[in-house]
Amino acid sequence: LGEVTEEKAVDLVAMAVGRAREIEALATQTYVPKRDALVVGGGIAGMTAALSIADQGFDVHLVEKTDSLGGNIVNVKRTVEGYDPAVLLKKTEDKIRQNQHITVYKNSTVAECKGFSGDFKTKINVGNDKDQPHTVEIEHGAAILATGAGESQPTEYLYGDNDKIFTQL
Q1: How far apart, in Å, are the Cα atoms of 29 and each of 24, 36, 74, 93, 124?
Q2: Which of 21, 76, 83, 138 has the fewest CB atoms in 10 Å of its CB?
Q3: CB-CB contact of 141 with 33 (8 Å)
Q4: Has this prediction a pTM greater than 0.85?
Q5: Is 2 helix (H, G, I), strand (E, B) or coil?
């Protein structure tokens, strides 16, 4: 039994050495990542992300599906800390408008995105019923999705159906 095991081990090592002789190094490819960034969502999170990237010297394409920036913050009257969200929104919008590295696409949606990490091509449908809609293709190396969300409205436990159950609405 010991001789059979030893012979098998020798055969396995010989096969591994034979295979290793034939192995060739993989060809490596290098590429320079695109320096632009895409931010989808013109709410306060998307605007803040766009400003942060632009302040580092990168160009940013900010896509918002409605005709105004702000997202859900326009529905907030006051924060827990006591800040006025309207003032924050106005200041942030002004910074976006003044920043030469940020291009804003309002009434726009992302139609298609292809590529790989560091090298994406995205088609943006720009315009609405009033404007002549057209497609813009941009190249970017990074993307941030800040599309926001609505609050959860479960159907369990009489949520929203019973006056004794309080909701955020």
Answers
A1: 15, 21, 47, 41, 29
A2: 21
A3: yes
A4: no
A5: helix
